[in-house]
Design brief:
single chain, 716 residues, alpha+beta, Immunoglobulin-like, four-stranded antiparallel β-sheet, 24 helices, 14 strands, elongated, transmembrane, kinase activity, TPR repeat, kinase
């Protein structure tokens, strides 16, 4: 029995072995459809167009996704070939999917093509984000610079970088990068941009020099027009009105000959503005008439822009009825345009600005009833759009309208509202300065990163070229070191500019604080004078004094937001202030204000409230204590072409006797006005390179020595 079972088991085992052997032999001879994939080992990117062979027979190429499909049997040899990697051999052992990973080494042509594609994509992206996201735009330019392979690409990358800086008003950086762009490949377009950005950075002479060099270049008709337009702008900025008009007219002639319609409108408008600055009003009207007609034939927005420019011109020439009609039409057009999108607050075309200017024009005509609704509407619109600047101006003007209309309660109420807006605006300005600080840090970081990248690129490029051409080794090393040094200097300059701008921002805040301290000090002293009249029951005199004081106060507040004001405004202020002091102390002194007729007072600017404290000191601490009647003289004389002197003299008791007469309490009290002036002058001279100098001495060598103050003021 056991022997039979063993026989049966042996027979079954031999049968199964025979079946397995026959099945294996069948599979080896069977042809399968096998799928496969060829991909790069590290990146896992598919490789297309790889050649597929089986046992030396060509069966096709891999598709876009690196895939292939073949018919083969077990034991066949698969061969995969490509120009960018070594031959791969693979023996087929089953019908599973075959995955072949290779070390991909693309050809120089493929590398170059991909780099060019990546470069162009980054440049396009940088341009897309240029106006909306400076950080993204700069990052894309940085990536583009990593993929440059020619001087032409370098030129385009640095031009784009400069365009970004120019749009965000970083004109120093824009100038540097336009220059680097031109060093790679000369370009008329880039030179035109460089000339324009020089002007925007107030480098007028450099702008004119760059633009004049292009006159002998081969320019397109469009470039010719832009050249003469930019030249006109630069000459206008330099106040060379005749040269400006000549340049604009040349550009206009080219635009007319070649039917460049938008520039025909622009240049008519700019010629009109140049004639306005020159004082030729009739010629200005003629060209403004042309520009307004031409703009109306273009599109609504261009017509609106020109209408606002012409309305400003009419305001300057007191043609208020024409101005009002033009601005009313402009408001209707603005409403139509804003059906699509709101106009940004920085634009001159906002409805709140136009309604404010309509109200102001009615105010200047003394039509107070018509002015009020426009100013109120302007305030509402400015509030809705968070435009604190227009809200402040409109509130201030509305207060003036109510005051002049005799509604003093409304005037006081509106003035309180105005002061609240001023406080709100001051807080916002501080926040804006903080944002500007953060923005400048980002710009600086990007600039340093890009300059470092360029330095590395120059060094690596020099190494490569040294191995290629030994004869140029010395030249390239010098170039690399020079370029690296230049980039280090540029980086140092960026850091210096940032620190300088930081100090400038801090100084602006300090000046704002000091100016805000001057106003309460001045108002307190002036109100003491009013109080003295009331105390003496001289109500009529107090009312007259208060009327003049209100005009003075308005001038002081209007000027308090500026670092510098035209000399003419400061003269008007001290004339009114001196008149008020003389009004109170008629029996103590006479005064004389003499201005040299040769001085063009429009050419000079002066810090507001700079002279008033010295006049106040002369009256209150010198002339007031004099036994007999004294004399106060204020003279303004031209020292040379770029300097003038304001000399304030009094024959009062002098500084030493005035100090002796003070009480112990008064001696401990430091003069707010004088201390404030010293700090302001110190900060201004730091910011604007010794623009103001002040010298104080005794006026006479007698008992009543008096005081002589000499303020030297330099032209911008």
């Amino acid at each position: 029995m056991k022997t039979n079972l063993k026989c049966i088991a042996l027979i079954l085992l031999l049968s199964s072995i025979e079946i397995a052997f026959s099945q294996t032999q069948f599979k080896e001879n069977q042809i399968f459809t096998i799928r496969g994939l060829v991909r790069e080992e590290v990146s896992q990117d598919p490789i297309k167009d790889a050649r597929i062979e089986v046992n030396g027979n060509y069966l096709g190429n891999t598709d876009y996704d690196g895939g292939f499909k073949i018919k083969a049997k077990i034991g066949d040899q698969l061969i995969v070939t490509h120009n960018d990697f070594e031959i791969v051999y693979h023996t087929i052992i089953n019908d599973d999917k075959i995955i072949i990973e290779v070390q991909y080494a693309p050809s120089p042509i493929e590398v170059s093509r991909k780099k060019a594609q990546t470069f162009n994509q980054n440049i396009d992206s940088a341009k897309i984000y240029l106006k909306n996201d400076v950080e993204k735009s700069l990052n894309y330019v940085t990536e583009a610079l990593k993929n440059t392979s020619s001087r032409k690409e370098n030129r385009l990358a640095y031009e784009t970088l400069a365009d970004v800086y120019a749009f965000w008003k970083q004109y120093d950086l824009a100038i540097i990068n336009y220059k680097i762009s031109l060093q790679n490949v000369d370009s008329n377009d880039v030179s035109l941009k460089l000339g324009e950005v020089y002007r925007l950075n107030k480098n007028t002479e450099e702008s004119i020099a760059v633009l004049n060099t292009l006159k002998n270049s081969r320019l397109t008709n469009w470039q010719d027009v832009i050249l003469y337009e930019n030249l006109g702008d630069s000459y206008l900025q330099a106040k060379n009105y005749s040269a400006s008009i000549t340049a604009y007219e040349k550009g206009l002639k080219i635009a007319q000959n070649h039917l460049i319609t938008p520039k025909i409108t622009d240049l008519n408008s700019k010629i009109a503005q140049a004639y306005t600055s020159k004082g030729s009003i009739n010629k200005a009207k003629e060209y403004f008439g042309n520009s307004l007609k031409l703009a109306n034939k273009e599109n609504k927005k261009r017509a609106l822009e020109e209408a606002v420019i012409v309305a400003d011109f009419q305001n300057t020439n007191r043609e208020y009825d024409e101005e009002i009609e033009l601005r009313k039409d402009a408001v209707d057009v603005i409403d139509d345009l804003e059906l699509d999108s709101l106009i940004d607050n920085t634009s001159a075309l906002t409805p709140q600005k136009q309604n404010y200017k309509i109200g102001n024009a009615f105010f200047l005509q003394k039509d107070y009833d018509s002015a009020i609704p426009y100013l109120e509407k302007s305030i509402i619109q400015a509030d809705e759009r968070e435009d604190l600047v227009v809200k402040k101006d409109a509130a201030r003007k509305l207060s003036d309208v109510h005051r002049d209309a005799g509604d003093f309660d409304k005037a006081r109420e509106t003035y309180d509202f105005y002061t609240n807006v001023v406080d709100e605006l001051y807080i916002k300005k501080e926040q804006e300065l903080s944002r500007v600080d953060r923005f400048n840090k980002k710009i600086l970081e990007s600039a340093i990163r890009i300059s470092s990248l360029e330095s590395e690129r120059v060094v690596s490029q020099s190494k490569y070229e040294v191995t290629e051409e030994r004869s140029k080794r010395q030249e390239l090393i010098i170039y690399s070191l020079g370029g690296g040094l230049a980039l280090l200097l540029i980086t140092g300059y960026f850091m210096y500019s940032y620190i300088k701008q930081q100090r400038f921002t801090n100084n602006l805040l300090a000046l704002k604080s000091l100016r805000s301290q001057m106003n309460p000090h001045f108002i307190f002293n002036a109100l003491n004078s009013v109080n003295s009249f009331i105390a003496n029951n001289d109500e009529r005199t107090a009312n007259k004094y208060l009327t003049d004081f209100s005009f003075l106060m308005r001038s002081v507040l209007e000027n308090s937001e500026e670092d510098f004001i035209p000399l003419q405004k400061e003269i008007e202020l001290i004339e009114l202030y001196t008149k008020l002091e003389h009004f109170r102390f008629k029996d103590k002194f006479d005064y004389n204000i003499n201005i040299d007729s040769n001085i063009d007072i429009q050419d000079f600017k002066i810090p507001p409230m700079l002279l008033q404290p010295y006049i106040e000191n002369a009256v209150w601490h010198g002339l007031r204590y004099k036994q007999n009647k004294g004399q106060l003289n204020i003279s303004i004389v031209q020292k040379n072409e770029d300097e003038l002197q304001v000399v304030i003299t009094d024959d009062g008791i002098g500084r030493e006797r005035s100090l002796q007469m003070k009480t112990e309490h008064q001696k401990k009290h430091k003069s707010t006005g004088m201390s404030n002036i010293k700090k302001r002058v110190s900060i201004l001279n730091t910011m604007y390179k010794d623009k103001v100098t002040i010298d104080i001495n005794n006026y006479l060598e007698v008992e009543d020595a008096g005081t002589k103050v000499v303020v030297t003021l330099k032209k911008d």
